[in-house]
Amino acid sequence: MKKILALMLTLVLTLSLTACGDSKEDKDASSASSEESDIAYVKDKGSLVIGITDFEPMDYKDESGEWIGFDADMAKAFAESLGVEAEFVEIDWDNKIMELDGKTIDCVWNGMTLTDEVTSSMSCSNAYCNNAQIVIVPKDKADQYQDTDSLSDLTFAVEAGSAGEEQVKALDLNYTAVKAQADALMEVAAGTSDAAVIDSLMAAAMVGEGTSYADLTYTVGLNNEEYGVGFRKGSDLTKALNEFFSSSYKSGSMTTCAETYGVQAAVIEQ
Amino acid sequence: MEQILEQLPIVLKALNIGFLQTLKLFFVTLIGAFPLGLVIAFGSMSRFKPLSYFTKIIVWIIRGTPLMIQLLIIYYFPGLVLHNPVWGGGETGRFVAASVSFILNYACYFSEIYRGGIQGVPVGQEEAGLVLGMTRGQIFLKITLLQMIKRIVPPMSNEIITLVKDTSLARIIALQEIIWAGQAFMKGSQGISGAIWPLFFTAVYYLICNGMLTVLLGRLEKKLDYFK
């Protein structure tokens, strides 16, 4: 009985190994063609998989559960221009490069700041939106901190690996790295940190009157930076998107779309 | 407080969707890991040495590394190294990859519990079966199996309850289970941002679920009490 079982097990294991071997050959075939053209790969699949996080006003869900936002709407239009379906997938932002290289997503299109880390590990589109890293402080203390020099005695909370962290590092300020920009805001609201540094577009949507953080406000802008879309290295989708951006900017559809979400002032001419 | 009451329906709806995913992963893991664990247990008890060593090495690797790393490797490795994202990027792909990782992981733990259960049945009983002229298969099915089941219920209950909570690890590959759903409201989702209570509220779901499981498994244990 046991010998028969042992034999069966060995058989199953061998079979599963051969099965792996087979699929590997398939892989080589498909990867060869996709290295030539990402566009062909996406068209073949029939869908452009867009890696996003829940990030108002760029990518967020409306009441019916549909993804909307400036980035989401532009991504849908771009997918349509390629003749494929746009598929939005929520990812863990820390894993974006792994997701992209592992082909579980085809692009990162989520208000992504073009930092050195991003541009060195992805093929990035032209910048399409302006952004800044700005300082968030409680409203009652805002008038004391209106310039960069006044910030030195504050403790900051910033998102780990974000453009904001680079800024506070460069200014040699005291800071704690937290998991997300929203966590940084919460640190300030809870009083565990004096101030936070986050994206201005996010601050506009999340801080001040009528938001969850009515007692916070923003003061100093630390730098100017730009948003771009990331594709796999060497992908020909980048060029296709740049052309799409330029034609939709010229036709005005990009500005119309930006106006829907209140970010028209930040859009960059293509 | 008023604000929480206002947010409650939205949050509960999102948490329910997340918890459904948690439950799905939980049941799929159990259904897969119960039989696979038995196969692995037989493998490691086999008298055919290469097979027994091979299984023991697999069990050592799976039990000796964190489930979080296994999830990352199983999900990202095919695309990153073999250039073929076998799982796909959608929700289904993430779920399948998570299921495979959990089934493998839990099957290895189960296999050791099974082995303990089988080897805990006194040898005398097997010998008695042989004297009566039963085949090995008959001995396993008619003598060992039920006694083994009785012995393994308490340690298995432990693993099953751990599994309910371990499903939260799947968020590392962006499987949107209940913890992910709760955390989304910290970052901002559906007009609610900076809300910490939904994350803590997920604990209630786990508690209720594990409470029910504890009662069920306790009943099962009582039912099997007649083997002494």
State the gist of this model.
The complex is a heterodimer of chains A (270) and B (228). Chain A is of the alpha/beta class.
Architecture overview:
The complex is a heterodimer of chains A (270) and B (228). Chain A folds into two domains: 32-130 and 226-266, Periplasmic binding protein-like II (D-Maltodextrin-Binding Protein, domain 2, 3-Layer(aba) Sandwich); 132-225, Periplasmic binding protein-like II (D-Maltodextrin-Binding Protein, domain 2), CATH 3.40.190. Chain A contains ten helices and eleven strands. Chain A has helices at 2-36, 38-45, 70-82, 96-101, 116-121, 163-170, 181-190, 200-206, 237-251, 253-260; strands at 47-52, 60-61, 67-68, 85-90, 107-113, 123-124, 129-138, 155-159, 174-178, 195-199, 216-231. In chain A, helix 1 packs across helix 2. The model of chain A is unreliable at 18-34 (pLDDT under 50). Chain B has a single domain (2-226), classed as MetI-like fold (Orthogonal Bundle). In chain B, 79% of the residues lie in helices and 0% in strands. Chain B is built from eight helices and no strands. Chain B is flat, with a radius of gyration of 22 Å. At the A-B interface, helix 1, strand 2, strand 4, helix 4 and helix 7 of A face helix 1, helix 3, helix 6 and helix 7 of B.
